[in-house]
């Protein structure tokens, strides 16, 4: 696909209110190839959380685009990330999701590596009659081009020229801070991980995190169950209403808003929160004193953050980290974790985990509805029609390039801010991610063409 074909994937005319994406974006293997090269393998992507490898020699395996990756803590406690591939014949070296290994021996021909990635043994080296070129070669594991740690959130890129991680995250760092600062000691992942796949393009998941519009229709059975539980509890006198005099959001504040950030990151927020069921409510005063009442208030908002391209943080029905791995144009793997503040009470942690189980994952009451919707979209896009979708239009007349009062309260400068009644259900925040995606693809296709010409010359 050449650069001018790639340019036609997005029709973006703000003056006419038009924003449409070609169906090939969701099903064409050539688009997928460009996404791997120029989005996932050329930018920072989320690899995992430092609490997944807490002790020296701990490791966990993950992905960076199409590259299998291992993140390891060395003997001195430093974290590093390597391509999970043995330099002998490129066999993958680590096969478990996580573990502890001072020395890792490749199961194919027995080369060994320490936890800082250094080669410690080439089996039968002396008898190997190696030429000097072998001795000169690098026998160590290959480090990913750049590895970054933002307050325990670990990112990597295969692009040595990538901008610095802090610059890449930009003001979306505030979204991470609102999660991390819920405890003076930060957050931790609750033990246990869930993996599942769906037969759909990864961008359906990318969009869904920013999509407040689907909630009442897609999750009507969940909402029905919540109402049923409330009725049952009333009848049996089992409702324990805890009233907190000090409330960070008033019900008269019921609002919805969005922020879009420079490198494709975004936030969907709403002040419609059930505070009495919130696992953090018992710490409200401590939070107000430590981070200030404005930041504390934002910790209690419903927030769905996207760190482009592969991380989503849902702090709504419970607290979930979601990592997307595109496998093909029409298949996606999700890895999900429950997270919570370090040191929270046993009761609050138990409540958090129950809420998490209730709503998320293939066994929960919401995720299956979402993934079926993605698969419906995938089927719909297989129709060879020129008709484009109308799914990025809500909020089109109220988006503002200037920071609104909420952005100023948080001290951030998003590229776009939107605010309205709960039923505004803004869709324009998805536009920023797609504009960034489109720019990477067009520039990447141009670079590919230039490299091809250079090779032919
Ligand atoms: S592939 Fe690892 S030792 Fe041969
Ligand atoms: Fe949903």
Report on this model:
The strands form 5 sheets. Strands 13, 14, 15, 16, 17, 18, 19, 20 and 21 form a 9-stranded antiparallel sheet that branches. Strands 6-5-4-7 form a 4-stranded antiparallel sheet, with no helix packed on it. The chain has a 3-stranded antiparallel sheet with strand order 3-12-11, with no helix packed on it. By secondary structure, it is α+β, with helices and mostly antiparallel strands. The two termini are 21 Å apart. α2 crosses α14 and α9 packs across α10 (293-299). Residues 239-244 have low confidence and may be disordered. The protein has helices at residues 3-7, 29-40, 132-136, 165-169, 173-180, 202-208, 215-218, 220-235, 284-291, 293-299, 346-359, 367-381, 405-410, 429-456; strands at 10-13, 18-21, 45-49, 58-64, 67-73, 79-83, 98-100, 103-105, 112-114, 119-121, 146-150, 153-157, 187-189, 194-198, 256-260, 266-270, 302-307, 311-315, 319-328, 331-341, 416-420. It has 2 domains: 45-150, 3-layer Sandwich (Rieske Iron-sulfur Protein), CATH 2.102.10.10; 170-444, Naphthalene 1,2-dioxygenase Alpha Subunit, Chain A, domain 1 (Alpha-Beta Complex), CATH 3.90.380.10. It has 14 helices and 21 strands. Helices cover 31% and strands 24% of the residues. Bound molecules: FE2/S2 (inorganic) cluster and fe (ii) ion. FE2/S2 (inorganic) cluster is lined by residues 86, 88-89, 91, 106, 108-111.
């Amino acid at each position: 696909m050449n650069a001018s074909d790639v340019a036609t994937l997005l029709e973006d005319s703000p003056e006419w209110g038009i924003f449409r994406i070609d169906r090939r974006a969701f099903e064409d293997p050539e688009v997928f190839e460009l996404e791997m090269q120029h989005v996932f393998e050329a930018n920072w992507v989320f690899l995992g959380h430092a609490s997944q490898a807490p002790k020296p020699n701990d490791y966990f395996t993950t992905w960076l685009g199409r590259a299998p990756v291992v993140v390891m803590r060395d003997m001195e406690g430093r974290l590093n990330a390597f391509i999970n591939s043995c330099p002998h014949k490129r066999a993958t070296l680590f096969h478990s999701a996580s573990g502890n290994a001072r020395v890792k021996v490749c199961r194919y021909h027995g080369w060994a590596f320490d936890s800082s990635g250094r080669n410690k043994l080439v089996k039968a080296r002396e008898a190997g009659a190696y030429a000097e070129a072998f001795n000169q070669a690098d026998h160590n594991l290959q480090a990913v081009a750049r590895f970054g740690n933002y307050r325990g959130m670990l990112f990597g890129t295969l692009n040595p020229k990538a901008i610095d991680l802090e610059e890449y995250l930009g003001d979306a760092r505030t979204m991470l801070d609102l999660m991390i600062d819920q405890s003076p000691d930060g957050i931790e992942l609750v033990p246990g991980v869930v993996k599942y796949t769906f037969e759909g393009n990864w961008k359906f998941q990318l969009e869904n995190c920013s999509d407040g519009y689907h909630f009442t229709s897609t999750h009507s059975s969940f909402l029905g169950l919540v109402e049923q539980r409330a009725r049952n509890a009333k009848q049996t006198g089992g409702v324990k209403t805890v009233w907190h005099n000090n409330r960070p959001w008033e019900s008269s504040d019921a609002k919805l808003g969005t922020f879009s950030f420079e490198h494709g990151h975004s936030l969907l927020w709403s002040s419609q929160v059930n505070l009495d069921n919130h696992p953090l409510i018992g710490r409200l005063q401590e939070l107000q004193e430590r981070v200030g009442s404005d930041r504390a208030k934002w910790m209690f908002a419903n927030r769905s953050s996207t760190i482009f391209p592969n991380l989503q943080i849902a702090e709504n029905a419970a607290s979930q980290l979601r990592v997307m791995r595109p496998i093909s144009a029409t298949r996606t793997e999700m890895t999900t974790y429950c997270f919570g503040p370090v040191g929270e009470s046993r009761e609050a942690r138990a409540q958090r985990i129950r809420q998490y189980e209730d709503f998320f994952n293939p066994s929960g009451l919401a995720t299956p509805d979402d993934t079926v919707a993605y698969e419906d979209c995938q089927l719909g896009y297989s129709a060879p029609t020129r008709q484009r979708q109308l799914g990025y239009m809500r909020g089109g007349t109220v988006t503002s390039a200037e920071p609104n009062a909420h952005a100023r309260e948080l001290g951030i400068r998003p590229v776009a801010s939107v605010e309205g009644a709960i039923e505004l259900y803004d869709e324009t925040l998805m536009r920023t991610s797609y504009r960034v995606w489109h720019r990477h693809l067009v520039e990447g296709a141009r670079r590919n063409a230039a490299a091809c010409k250079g090779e032919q010359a």
